[in-house]
Amino acid sequence: MQVSYASEATPGRENEDFVAAGPGWVVLLDGATAPPGVDGGCRHDPAWLVRRLGGRIAAGLAAEAGEPLPDLVAEAIKVTGEAHAGTCDLGDPDSPSATVSVLRRRADAVDWLVLADSPIVFETSAGPVVCRDDRIDRLPSYTRAAVRAARNSPGGFWVASTKPEAAYEARTGRVPLRGLRRAAVLSDGASRLVERFGRLSWAGLLRVLDEEGPAELVRRTREAEAAQPADAAGRGKRHDDATAVLVRF
């Protein structure tokens, strides 16, 4: 398994994405930028969360104990919470949060986990297989209060924050290794070329990643963002941290 990636912050800001890889695995987290005026009861920012939480997940994957991916992510959320429970209000629903996407190769298949909107895309002999968690796309309202109430709540959407049980709400599955050529692990800042801007199909995104590299996908993302009017309608930021990971099998 060969892994390459590019990660670039929103222009002028700190990168709140995190990616790590080892023999047979990849983990990617995308921190949720806090809205202006919201402190979440925590002295730490999303960049701190993704590094601490991502590091714990990576350590678990590197240990190769073979535990189910939701168990591994739940333990990482628990341990990360314990690291700042004494200084921060872990009961605040606005506490820093992140997406989690994990890919792990087994003997004859690839296990995957996706929590919130950072998809994994596999290229199989039958075409692209998109593994995504679209619950945040189906909320009835996107006001600050509505999103706050829906976060890590039944009927809403789930993210990695302070509740270990969120890991068991992740989308999970397994893709047979036979016929599998490559995969992409993407923060939503990189998947937006398909999902928001419509400039590529999933097959086209995989082709760009493989033939031109992850940095080119990020460059095209910045180009598409710059082409949008400053007051473009629709939910979401004009610019975002963008991380694209290519996995060849």
UniProtKB/TrEMBL annotation:
Residues 24-215 form the PPM-type phosphatase domain. It holds the Pfam family PP2C_2. Residues 220-240 are annotated as: Disordered. It comes from the Bacteria. This is Protein phosphatase 2C domain-containing protein. It comes from Actinomadura sediminis.
